[in-house]
Design a protein that fits this description.
mainly alpha; 6 helices; single chain
């Protein structure tokens, strides 16, 4: 515990109180994420580092993290790396609210639908190129 205090450069009781408050919020978040993922073992150090990255660096709350967790419903063996990829993508695009993320996901879904429609239309116009090997007989008729 002391190493955490010294790492955080805690010198006053107020700083210590803030540190404990922050740690409690992180512990609640870790437990909430574990429950949503059905993980009933302690999280590994690496898994905890992902959660700290999402909350400390990206400043994401449980509402946004939960959106990422929901994206894995049909994904087999999705792990913290998968969730990190999703959240990192959103962070790199500057998405900071649930509404922004939902709008982004909707636009991506719309783009996929339009791309499939274009592919379907393109198939209607597919043809094979004719080749003329015998030019002498080309104008015989």
């Amino acid at each position: 515990m002391l190493s955490g205090w010294s790492k955080s450069k805690i010198k006053t009781f107020e700083e210590l109180d803030n540190y404990f408050s922050k740690q409690e919020k992180i512990n609640v978040l870790k437990k909430d994420i574990s429950n949503k993922l059905g993980i009933f073992r302690p999280l590994t150090t690496f898994e905890e580092e992902y959660i700290l990255k999402w909350t400390e660096e990206y400043k994401y709350g449980m509402d946004i993290i939960e959106l990422a967790l929901k994206r894995s419903v049909f994904k087999t063996n999705a792990g913290f790396k998968y969730y990190d990829d999703i959240l990192s993508d959103w962070y790199s695009k500057g998405l900071t609210t649930v509404d922004e993320i939902n709008n982004y996901l909707t636009s991506m879904s719309d783009k996929k639908v339009r791309a499939k429609q274009v592919q379907t239309m393109a198939k209607q116009f597919e043809f094979t190129q004719s080749t003329f090997d015998n030019f002498e007989n080309l104008y015989d008729n």
